[in-house]
Design goal:
The protein folds into two domains: 50 residues, no CATH class; 74 residues. Helices cover 52% and strands 3% of the residues. It contains three helices and two strands; from the N terminus they run ββααα. It has a two-stranded antiparallel ribbon with strand order 1-2. The structure holds zinc ion (ZN) (2 copies). One zinc ion binds next to helix 1.
Protein backbone atom coordinates (compact mmCIF):
# COMPACT_ATOMS: atom_id res chain seq x y z
CA UNK A 1 0.00 0.00 0.00
CA UNK A 2 3.04 2.31 0.19
CA UNK A 3 3.57 4.95 -2.49
CA UNK A 4 7.33 4.82 -1.99
CA UNK A 5 9.03 1.56 -2.94
CA UNK A 6 10.79 -0.44 -0.26
CA UNK A 7 14.13 -1.85 -1.52
CA UNK A 8 14.59 -5.60 -0.88
CA UNK A 9 16.59 -6.31 2.26
CA UNK A 10 16.01 -2.85 3.76
CA UNK A 11 16.39 -2.84 7.53
CA UNK A 12 14.40 -0.85 10.08
CA UNK A 13 16.24 2.38 10.79
CA UNK A 14 14.80 2.56 14.31
CA UNK A 15 16.07 -0.80 15.49
CA UNK A 16 19.78 0.03 15.17
CA UNK A 17 20.47 -1.23 18.70
CA UNK A 18 19.02 -4.69 17.96
CA UNK A 19 21.47 -7.62 17.66
CA UNK A 20 20.00 -8.62 14.25
CA UNK A 21 18.80 -6.12 11.65
CA UNK A 22 15.01 -6.01 11.65
CA UNK A 23 13.48 -6.19 8.16
CA UNK A 24 11.69 -2.99 7.24
CA UNK A 25 8.04 -3.23 6.25
CA UNK A 26 7.25 0.42 5.47
CA UNK A 27 8.75 3.58 4.02
CA UNK A 28 7.89 6.78 5.84
CA UNK A 29 5.92 8.97 3.43
CA UNK A 30 7.23 12.09 5.18
CA UNK A 31 10.96 11.53 5.45
CA UNK A 32 11.52 8.34 3.41
CA UNK A 33 13.17 6.33 6.17
CA UNK A 34 12.57 2.57 6.52
CA UNK A 35 10.90 1.06 9.52
CA UNK A 36 9.34 -2.23 10.63
CA UNK A 37 5.70 -2.88 11.56
CA UNK A 38 6.63 -2.73 15.23
CA UNK A 39 7.93 0.84 14.83
CA UNK A 40 5.00 2.02 12.69
CA UNK A 41 2.86 4.79 14.13
CA UNK A 42 -0.57 5.63 12.73
CA UNK A 43 -3.23 8.21 13.45
CA UNK A 44 -5.94 5.77 12.32
CA UNK A 45 -5.70 2.04 11.52
CA UNK A 46 -6.31 2.71 7.81
CA UNK A 47 -3.90 5.66 7.62
CA UNK A 48 -0.41 5.37 6.10
CA UNK A 49 2.14 4.54 8.79
CA UNK A 50 4.64 7.16 9.94
CA UNK A 51 8.15 6.57 11.29
CA UNK A 52 8.72 7.15 15.05
CA UNK A 53 10.74 10.34 14.37
CA UNK A 54 8.00 11.95 12.28
CA UNK A 55 5.43 10.73 14.78
CA UNK A 56 7.25 12.50 17.61
CA UNK A 57 7.43 15.72 15.56
CA UNK A 58 3.74 15.46 14.76
CA UNK A 59 2.80 14.85 18.41
CA UNK A 60 4.85 17.89 19.39
CA UNK A 61 3.08 20.20 16.93
CA UNK A 62 -0.31 18.86 18.05
CA UNK A 63 0.49 19.65 21.71
CA UNK A 64 1.71 23.17 20.88
CA UNK A 65 -1.48 23.85 18.95
CA UNK A 66 -3.52 22.61 21.89
CA UNK A 67 -1.70 24.97 24.23
CA UNK A 68 -2.27 27.97 22.01
CA UNK A 69 -5.73 27.84 20.49
CA UNK A 70 -8.19 27.32 23.40
CA UNK A 71 -6.92 30.32 25.38
CA UNK A 72 -6.41 32.70 22.44
CA UNK A 73 -10.08 33.74 22.53
CA UNK A 74 -9.61 34.80 26.18
CA UNK A 75 -6.83 37.22 25.26
CA UNK A 76 -8.88 38.55 22.33
CA UNK A 77 -11.88 38.93 24.67
CA UNK A 78 -9.84 40.84 27.22
CA UNK A 79 -8.44 43.12 24.49
CA UNK A 80 -11.96 43.79 23.21
CA UNK A 81 -13.11 44.41 26.78
CA UNK A 82 -10.48 47.15 27.18
CA UNK A 83 -11.38 48.54 23.74
CA UNK A 84 -15.08 48.58 24.66
CA UNK A 85 -14.37 51.35 27.20
CA UNK A 86 -14.43 53.62 24.14
CA UNK A 87 -17.96 54.87 23.50
CA UNK A 88 -18.38 52.78 20.35
CA UNK A 89 -21.36 50.37 20.68
CA UNK A 90 -20.01 48.01 17.99
CA UNK A 91 -16.96 47.30 20.17
CA UNK A 92 -19.13 46.51 23.20
CA UNK A 93 -21.41 44.18 21.27
CA UNK A 94 -18.39 42.38 19.76
CA UNK A 95 -16.70 42.21 23.13
CA UNK A 96 -19.85 40.85 24.80
CA UNK A 97 -20.16 38.04 22.25
CA UNK A 98 -16.45 37.08 22.34
CA UNK A 99 -16.26 37.18 26.15
CA UNK A 100 -19.39 35.05 26.59
CA UNK A 101 -17.86 32.45 24.22
CA UNK A 102 -14.56 32.74 26.12
CA UNK A 103 -16.33 32.23 29.45
CA UNK A 104 -18.19 29.15 28.18
CA UNK A 105 -14.91 27.72 26.86
CA UNK A 106 -13.06 28.35 30.12
CA UNK A 107 -14.66 25.40 31.90
CA UNK A 108 -11.97 22.88 30.87
CA UNK A 109 -8.76 22.13 32.82
CA UNK A 110 -6.54 23.63 30.06
CA UNK A 111 -8.43 26.91 29.83
CA UNK A 112 -9.37 27.33 33.50
CA UNK A 113 -6.41 29.63 34.17
CA UNK A 114 -7.67 32.07 31.51
CA UNK A 115 -11.18 32.37 32.92
CA UNK A 116 -10.36 35.62 34.74
CA UNK A 117 -9.69 37.23 31.34
CA UNK A 118 -13.22 36.41 30.18
CA UNK A 119 -14.72 37.68 33.46
CA UNK A 120 -12.63 40.88 33.38
CA UNK A 121 -13.52 41.31 29.70
CA UNK A 122 -17.23 41.05 30.58
CA UNK A 123 -16.88 43.51 33.49
CA UNK A 124 -15.10 45.99 31.18
CA UNK A 125 -17.82 45.51 28.56
CA UNK A 126 -20.52 46.32 31.14
CA UNK A 127 -18.53 49.44 32.07
CA UNK A 128 -18.37 50.30 28.36
CA UNK A 129 -22.16 50.00 28.09
CA UNK A 130 -22.48 52.19 31.19
CA UNK A 131 -20.29 54.86 29.56
CA UNK A 132 -22.48 54.68 26.44
CA UNK A 133 -25.66 55.14 28.49
CA UNK A 134 -24.12 57.99 30.53
CA UNK A 135 -22.97 59.80 27.37
CA UNK A 136 -26.37 59.28 25.75
CA UNK A 137 -28.18 60.57 28.86
CA UNK A 138 -25.88 63.59 29.03
CA UNK A 139 -26.45 64.30 25.33
CA UNK A 140 -30.26 64.18 25.83
CA UNK A 141 -30.21 66.25 29.04
CA UNK A 142 -27.87 69.00 27.89
CA UNK A 143 -29.28 69.49 24.43
ZN1 LIG B 1 9.54 9.84 8.86
ZN1 LIG C 1 11.63 -1.17 13.92
Amino acid sequence: MNILALPPGAACGFHSGAPMPVAAAHVCERCGSFFCSGCACRTRPEALPMCPACWALRAQSVTTNKEHSPTRIHSVGLGLGIASLLPIPVLQIGSLVVNIIALVRSFTPETESSRWKAILGLVLTVFGFGIDVALLTAAVMFK
